[in-house]
Amino acid sequence: MKSFIPEIGCSIPRADGEAKVSGEEKYATDHYGDGLLWAGVRRAGIPHGRIRGLDAGQAKNLPGVIAILTGRDVPGTNRQGIVHKDQPVLCTDKIRHCGDPVALVLAEDRTVLAQALALITVDIEPLPGIFSIDDALRPDAPLVHEEHSGSNVLLAATVDKGNAEEAFSECDVILEETFTVPSVAHAFLETENGIAWQEPDGKIVLVVSTQAPFRDRFEISHALGIPMDRLRIIGPYLGGGFGGKDGATVQCLLVLAAIHAGGRRVKMWWSREESMAAGFKRHAVRMEYRLGAGSDGTLHALKCRLYYDTGAYAHLGGEVMALGMEHASGPYRIPHTLIEGWCVYTNNPVAGAMRGFGVAQVSFAFEGMMDRLAEKLRMDPLDLRMKNALQRGDKNGAGVTMTHSTGIVSCLEAVGSHPLWKGKEQWMAEAPPFKKRGVGVAAVFNAMGYGRGLPDSAIAKVELTAEGKIRVYCGVSDMGQGNATAFFQIAGGVLGQENDAIELVQPDTARTLPSGSASAGRTTYTYGNALIQAAEELRRRIIGRAALMILADTVDELELLPGRVKHLKSGREIPLNILASVMPPEDRICISQFIMPVARDGLETGKAFFIGFPHLLFSYAAHLAAVEMDELTGTLEVKAYLAATDAGRVLNPQSYEQQVHGAIAQGIGYALCEEIKLEEGRILTPDLATFIIPGAMDIPDMMSISVETCETSGPYGMKGAGEVGINGPLPAIAGALAQACGIRVKTAPLTAERILEAMVEQQTACERKPS
Amino acid sequence: MNRVLLPKNLPELWSFLENEPEARVYAGGTDLLVQMRARCADNLVLICLERIAELTGIREDEDGFWIGACTTFRHLLNHPRIREQIPVLAKALSTLGSPPIRNMATIGGNICTASPAGDTLPPLYVLDADLILSTQSGERVVPLSGFITAPGKTQLERGEVLTQIRIKKPEGYRVQHFEKVGQRKALACAIASMAALVKTSPAGVIESARIAWGSVGPTVVVSPDAEAALTGKTLSPAVLEAAADLAGKAMAPIDDIRATAVYRRRVAANLLLRIGT
Amino acid sequence: MIIRFVLNGEETQIDCAPDRRVIDLLREDFGLTGIKEGCGSGECGTCTILVDGENRLSCLMLAVQLEGKSITTIEGLAGENRQHPLQEAFIRCGAVQCGYCSPGMILAARALLTENPEPTREQIREALSGNLCRCTGYQKIVDAVEAAARAMQKQKEKAG
Ligand SMILES: Cc1cc2nc3c(=O)[nH]c(=O)nc-3n(C[C@H](O)[C@H](O)[C@H](O)COP(=O)(O)OP(=O)(O)OC[C@H]3O[C@@H](n4cnc5c(N)ncnc54)[C@H](O)[C@@H]3O)c2cc1C
Ligand code: FES
Ligand code: FES
């Protein structure tokens, strides 16, 4: 490859591409080492119960077993959790879901490990379980967490504006519907894993597939009682994350194992089945909606009740619900809203962050309501959306004034003028035998950042190395979304250096600085802003120090060029390695912090959320899905897809499109086939043969239009592009199905079985109608 | 540790089997190794059949094909005569698993696994395939239709190996149809499948119809009533619907993680309507 | 037992348990960690290797099955060259995101292009249908395979 200066706005290839296609990139899974030990977890296998006893005698005697640890061996609080510390590293007493860990085994190899795990017997007294939202809310329901405020409600909250109850009397039409979406798995291809060891000085090093290395350090320290300065967390590139590696998975277990490994390396790598059972999931949600509008389609009042099943532990449940509630009224202007939410504990697997954090769920509901309203009023569904779409200066459903870039109208215009929309009637008319066709639209949005309550901060560090190269210390993980490449471009652009002269250091608590999690569409925005500041400071320094060497009386005559500083008048040049050799190390490093701006409206609502509400910045998208449904089987196929996205300015068109495509594909999976099925807390879809994600033949070629607004607070005008795209497919496809055959499915996913069932019902209803 | 033996020819296989009567044979391993992973099996003897030349390959004669039990799906699909003469089988193979699965998995493995969802089974049923089961001392021929006795259960006896599959060419069957309903396009276990052979007269009258369904009963389901209802009629939606109703009665599907029995029965019967197009 | 095979063009022999999974043998004993494990049960394709040029799943093969075979892993795909045209195209076309599926995808595509040097997009999708990707939505992967096919055709024409 030729050398180039990675600049902003260009489709420069991924900084990590070469190592990834050659197989050289070392993910966490790819670390081994001499004398490696394997660690594994015995899980409860029972959804709710009390541990009466644990017998590891036989397992302990197995040759090759190094240690078997239980909750009693956990030195610290034995509690992990991002907001609420309610999740044990190893259960000592109560079991709250099937994936709960009861013992940790260290063994010489995987075969012995498997045998030892099978030999451990756990005596658990079963307790009546809570397996659904309704179970959880029954007044006499057994408690998942006895110590938690006497109910299974982790968090109940209200977000409101105006007076919704009264406003319904002013509406010409009122529609009601209840929607449900299931829990789904992230299904990243690299399952949860890591490797840890204790250094001779007692410090513990953990290399782990994580979205939040700095928070991990904090969690481990708290749960295991190890001072933070004794822990070093290294977070290499991830084989996918999507939210599922935002929180402790193997971290505390591995560090605990390392303490007992006598300096040997210990590896833990969850199998796909273990990842399904013990890994985080997307929340299953029930959404009861009531929407009121004028006869001209102007939205007037919305009331909804949202119920989030957060599973056995709090994890990010409250925050996921907060974001869902904040988005429950869609990217629309609705003067009166009343949104109530309950996030409940159950004995189901633990739910948490997943791309479209709480929003992917409500998008199905609010867009489903818009489609129903359009049908009722005989309005074009796109016109109805356009009419009500948020504009800058409007207040959104939570009452926050949209003071920043708000591009939803432009997104809707872009899809509305596209041939896929304009030519839809003809395309639908040309359906082959036994097929019905439809085109659906969805308007969606997604907030960026953590919201109020904790600083959304990143600290960038950039160095002119002794060799005269640029090294960027990324404090935030790259799980595949390409933020590292954006940082590469920012450093390259600001400092004018070529690709070979820029090195990226992936997160490492010993080398990089805390920059929050790779999540919430914040990664490039927050760290990018910090990096621009740091890189600009470094540029000033380099030029300033060069001025001293060159005896220039003004820095204006100097320019930083690839590998050198040039004095333009005299043509003299100082190579960067020479310059670096006279700069002391601390002079060669620049550090800068950036904190995301927050909403300034003094809201009197959402008081129950102490973090994560409300947000100021949003990305927007309008999607079109063209589908074909088979009348004999009910199978739905997405034939064409269009997304118009407002994620501010595009720093790298290729990376941007990757995010759009990836989000749509996951959204199509969410719409058509993904579903964690449970029976009394047990996963019936434990692997990739039963938890179905789309393959190469299930996703059509997608079209992406970038509606570039300029987000003035963002680095070069950008906003997060990673999440918003996942919110569109489910509602757009559901709308398309209704267009095709009049069936409105209100339970996701839209499986062939559900559709065929609905068609049979529709037919019987027709036959019953007197003609 | 498990021992794994890799015989190069049939005599070697027979001697291994003689010494290790408890050994499990496998060909592509795409069923057996997945099962073993779940069960953490240890101290077994496995015999891998993939290198036995006598068990792989396709031979055509006057009225049909001899297919070695360990022939991979890829090999079958790449065989132009199979694609041309028995498209009903080729279509089923092209939907089976995924390309790497088809590169490894074998037709004999699919038959011996005896899964209700085995994708080769409905086409092999309508083709009236015969199986050659061999031991060191001899062989017997059994029709596929009697071979599978229950899910996962076959007439294979200890030490017996499926060596060949015999398929006669379906002369005159102009319509050769296969369709599978799964949860996605590839890597999809059948929720229901159907293979059909239909022979019509020049005037369009159905002279003979052979139809078999997968995944709607403990093993492949056939419906003589439905076949009879088609015979002597012309292929029309009404005729097909009547036959589909009868077919539904022959099915005994179950609810499982992929679909309910109700859906399976409905969709399997519906598949019949497609032959009219 | 001793197993002899050709690994990325070199004659190799190793003494190992006959029931060792090929994926473990190659990753752990040979350090070929470009082979990934996403499921261990044939569903994801991340463990793809080429066995005599055919894409197979190393999580469902036992060590003895390597005997006498020629194995190519992602590490050996480029051979003497710095990069195979497929690798080059995957980077250029943006077919790589997290990259965990990439080695398997590239090898599956390699097997396709050997058999069918000018595949249609549909044929490419079908050939890659045993390799799951959770990041890309597949489109750019299909683009990359198309681009690599063109590049390889050109190379061939140049070579005469
Ligand atoms: C990811 C994946 C997807 C799949 N998709 C499908 C699908 O879509 N449709 C489908 O039908 N199947 C599917 N399967 C199942 C499997 O691939 C097939 O059943 C395949 O045909 C099995 O062949 P094999 O050679 O791999 O069998 P093996 O695993 O080698 O053997 C299977 C069984 O048959 C026995 N056996 C094998 N050969 C003989 C013989 N010659 N004589 C006696 N006994 C023998 C073995 O002892 C074993 O019990 C899938 C499997 C996987 C892993
Ligand atoms: S690891 Fe082999 S197919 Fe998934
Ligand atoms: S790039 Fe992440 S799985 Fe394909």
Would you give an account of this structure?
The complex is a heterotrimer of chains A (771), B (277) and C (160). Chain A is α+β, with helices and mostly antiparallel strands. Helices cover 27% and strands 25% of the residues of chain A. Chain A folds into 3 domains: 17-26 and 457-595, 2-Layer Sandwich (Aldehyde Oxidoreductase, domain 4); 31-127 and 192-269, Aldehyde oxidase/xanthine dehydrogenase, a/b hammerhead (Aldehyde Oxidoreductase, domain 3); 281-451 and 602-767, 2-Layer Sandwich (Aldehyde Oxidoreductase, domain 4). The mean pLDDT of chain A is 96. Chain B folds into 2 domains: 51-168, Uridine Diphospho-n-acetylenolpyruvylglucosamine Reductase, domain 3; 175-274, CO dehydrogenase flavoprotein, C-terminal domain (Enolase-like, domain 1, 2-Layer Sandwich), CATH 3.30.390. Chain B has helices at residues 10-19, 32-39, 73-77, 80-85, 87-94, 99-104, 107-113, 121-126, 144-147, 224-230, 237-250, 261-271; strands at residues 3-5, 24-26, 45-48, 58-61, 64-68, 130-135, 138-143, 148-150, 153-154, 161-168, 175-181, 192-200, 206-214, 221-222. The longest helix of chain B has 14 residues, at 237-250. By secondary structure, chain C is α+β, with helices and mostly antiparallel strands. Classes of the chains: A alpha+beta (771), B alpha+beta (277), C alpha+beta (160). The interface between A and C is large, with 54 and 53 residues. The structure holds flavin-adenine dinucleotide and FE2/S2 (inorganic) cluster (2 copies). Residues 24-32, 34, 49, 69-70, 96-97, 101, 104-106, 108-110, 112-113, 117-119, 156, 161-162, 187, 189 of chain B line the site of flavin-adenine dinucleotide.
